[in-house]
Amino acid sequence: xxxxxxxxxxIGMMVIMAIALTGCELKSNKKAIDxxxxxxxxxxxxSSGVKFSYPEEWKSLGTTSKPVFADANxxxxxxxxxxxxxxxxxxxSYMSASIANIKKQLASKIKGDVSEEEVKLNGKxxxxxxxxxxxxxxxxxxxxxxxxxDKTAYILTTATTADENDTEIIDxxxxxxxx
Length: 179
What we know:
- By secondary structure, the protein is α+β, with helices and mostly antiparallel strands.
- A hairpin with a 2-residue loop joins strand 8 and strand 9.
- Strands 1-7-8-9-10-6-5-4 form an 8-stranded mixed sheet. It has a two-stranded antiparallel ribbon with strand order 2-3.
- It has helices at residues 2-26, 91-105, 167-175; strands at 31-33, 41-45, 51-55, 59-60, 68-70, 77-84, 110-121, 124-135, 138-149, 152-161.
- The longest helix is centred in the N-terminal third of the chain and has 25 residues, at 2-26.
């Protein structure tokens, strides 16, 4: 009977440990970015259901399939792209391939490295990459947020010159990126 009680106690402890470990895995140490209340912003809703907000004084420069919005005064802008995710890819492998492609395609134009941060963006697993690209002698800060929904990657790209560095606006736009 003592042996049985020990086994039951051991199994009970293992179950508790398993539950605790599972709970730890479910809790994320990822930075959470949630949509803020934005005054002076316009919400754009794509036909896919993806949404983001941009400053209301910005002008539309794109099409319904490839939306682009920009500040006519300084060129700070945002655009939305989407593409099918190859089978077998998840967010991590997709972003690794994307970063490798950026480095390959823009090698001589990138200053420094491409940094990546995995986040929870409005409850979705997402990745944000940042890098500086030199274009015609002008340094451009690029910040891209990406999440995958139903085998489609949605990529929100923001760009601002190093001189302007509209960090708050860029962060507001990215915080509003959701589906």
